[in-house]
C-alpha cells in the first residue's frame, strides 16, 4: 500500500506503517553515517548534547556526492545500515523516529525498534541520482569536518522508501523470503 507521510515522524504515524508499505516522505530528514554516529555516541558517553533534537526525527544513512550546478545535492543513495547498528539502539531510546538505509539490522536494533515504536525504511540502493531529485534543500548542520559524512538537514518531497521493519518487528527481509519459498 502506498502512503504519504510527513517528517518528523510521530509514534502514531510509525504505528500506522506496516512492513512492505511503499512510503513517500515529505518534510525534514537528517543524514548521518558511520563517523557522525561515532561522534554522537562519544558525545553522549561524555554527557554532552547531540547537535540535533533527535525526537521523532528520521536519519538517512547517506553520504552524498558533490552537487551539480543548480542542484542542492549530488547522488544521494543509501549506505549499509548495519554499520550503524552499534549506535542505533541508543538513538532510538532517545526518541529517534525512523531510519533509512539498506540491508538487514541486528537483533538489538530490531528490539529497539519494537521497544520504541519506530520504523526502519529501505531506500533503493543504486538509485542515488534518482533519489536526489526528491531532495529540494541540503544544509550541513554539524560536523562539517567530516566532509560527506557531516550531518545534513535535508528537505525532501515525496522521497520513496519501503517499510522493512515496522513498529511491531515485522521484517520484510524475512517475510519476503518465506513468501518466495512457498510460491515455488
Characterization of this structure:
The protein is of the alpha/beta class and 184 residues long. It has one domain (2-183): fumarase (Alpha-Beta Barrel). It is built from six helices and seven strands. The chain has helices at residues 11-16, 34-45, 88-93, 107-116, 128-132, 172-183, and strands spanning 2-7, 22-31, 58-60, 98-101, 119-122, 135-142, 151-165. A five-stranded mixed beta barrel has the order 2-3-4-5-7. Strand 1 (2-7), helix 1 and strand 2 form a beta-alpha-beta unit. The longest helix is centred in the N-terminal third of the chain and has 12 residues, at 34-45. It is globular, with a radius of gyration of 16 Å. It starts with a strand and ends with a helix. The model has no long low-confidence stretch (mean pLDDT 94).
Task: Summarize this structure as a short list of keywords or feature phrases.
Fe-S_hydroAse_TtdB_cat_sf; 5-stranded mixed β-barrel; lyase; fumarase; Fe-S_hydro-lyase_TtdB-typ_cat; 184 residues
List the topology elements:
Blueprint: E1 2-7, H1 11-16, E2 22-31, H2 34-45, E3 58-60, H3 88-93, E4 98-101, H4 107-116, E5 119-122, H5 128-132, E6 135-142, E7 151-165, H6 172-183
Pfam family, one: Fumerase_C
Keywords: Lyase
Organism: Faecalicatena orotica
Amino acid at each position: 500500500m502506498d502512503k504519504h507521510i510527513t517528517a518528523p515522524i510521530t509514534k502514531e504515524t510509525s504505528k500506522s506503517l506496516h512492513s512492505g508499505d511503499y512510503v513517500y516522505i515529505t518534510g525534514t530528514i537528517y543524514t548521518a553515517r558511520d563517523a557522525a554516529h561515532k561522534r554522537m555516541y562519544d558525545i553522549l558517553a561524555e554527557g554532552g548534547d547531540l547537535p540535533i533534537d533527535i525526537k521523532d526525527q528520521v536519519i538517512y544513512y547517506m553520504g552524498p556526492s558533490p552537487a551539480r550546478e543548480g542542484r542542492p545535492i549530488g547522488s544521494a543513495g543509501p549506505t549499509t545500515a548495519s554499520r550503524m547498528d552499534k549506535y542505533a539502539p541508543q538513538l532510538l531510546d532517545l526518541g529517534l523516529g525512523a531510519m533509512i538505509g539498506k540491508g538487514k539490522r541486528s537483533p538489538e536494533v530490531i528490539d529497539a525498534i519494537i521497544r520504541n515504536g519506530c520504523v526502519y525504511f529501505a531506500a533503493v540502493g543504486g538509485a542515488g541520482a534518482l533519489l536526489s531529485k526528491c531532495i529540494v534543500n541540503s544544509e550541513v548542520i554539524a560536523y562539517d569536518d567530516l566532509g560527506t559524512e557531516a550531518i545534513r538537514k535535508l528537505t525532501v518531497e515525496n522521497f520513496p522508501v519501503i517499510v522493512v521493519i515496522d513498529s511491531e518487528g515485522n521484517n520484510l527481509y524475512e517475510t519476503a523470503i518465506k513468501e518466495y519459498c512457498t510460491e515455488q
